[in-house]
Design goal:
The structure is a single chain. Helix 4 packs across helix 6. A hairpin with a 5-residue loop joins strand 3 and strand 4. The strands form five sheets. A three-stranded antiparallel β-sheet has the order 8-5-12, with no helix packed on it. The chain has a three-stranded antiparallel β-sheet with strand order 9-10-11, with no helix packed on it. A two-stranded antiparallel ribbon has the order 1-2. It starts with a helix and ends with a strand. The radius of gyration is 19 Å and the shape is elongated. It has six helices and twelve strands. The protein has 187 residues and is of the alpha+beta class. Helix content is 27%, strand content 20%.
Length: 187
């Protein structure tokens, strides 16, 4: 039986991430040693395009709320990786915190290409920042596009990381802003 046929049976002829029934194709989840249905996932054209590098549509990926509970490890791996990519979204962080993966599955999920080479996000003291940390601003910051100034000493709770390791995101005075990581210190 071919990989594609096995995936169609496993998924019920639907995308294993969003459930779309059309434009389906198998995709190999890296890293892989041998080609098998255990390391392939059946994806629709929309999911495939966004996984392969297009800017993710956050509303489309809310489907991960359901697919992350799949019993199929390769589906769990892809749900984990997409939630990590969408880490600046609060709902994605919440889902990531709820997601339980077996140790082997977690290692596979974290083995995304280049993940170990990624530059860490550091505060002013060189401390590594991770999503969910609390930081304090060390200087007054003018917020572009507004007349608001984020004052020195302001606490920013539950930060999000961005694709740029020099930037973080957080809420200041109820407004979500991008902050240069070097202008804050971990609380």
């Amino acid at each position: 039986m071919s990989i594609e046929h096995t995936l169609l049976e496993r998924s019920g002829h639907r995308c294993e991430l969003c459930g779309a029934p059309e434009n389906l194709s198998p995709w190999a989840v890296p890293p892989q040693e041998l080609a098998s249905s255990d390391n392939h996932i059946l994806l629709c054209g929309t999911c495939l395009a966004q996984i392969d590098g297009a800017e993710p549509d956050q509303n489309h990926w809310r489907c991960l709320n359901d697919s992350m509970w799949s019993q199929v490890p390769v589906v769990q791996v892809m749900a984990f990786r997409m939630l990590k990519r969408l880490g600046s979204e609060t709902w994605a962080q919440d889902l990531l915190e709820m997601l339980y993966l077996e140790d082997d599955t977690r290692k596979w999920a974290e083995a995304a290409a280049g993940a170990e080479d990624a530059e860490p996000t550091l505060d002013v003291n060189g401390v590594v920042l991770v999503a969910g940390d609390n930081v304090t601003l060390i200087k007054d910051l003018d917020v572009k596009g507004t007349s608001m100034t984020a004052k020195r000493g302001t606490a920013v709770r539950g930060i999000s990381l961005s694709d740029n390791p020099k930037h973080i995101e957080g809420r200041v005075n109820g407004q979500r802003i991008v902050i240069i990581a070097a202008y804050c210190k971990k609380s």
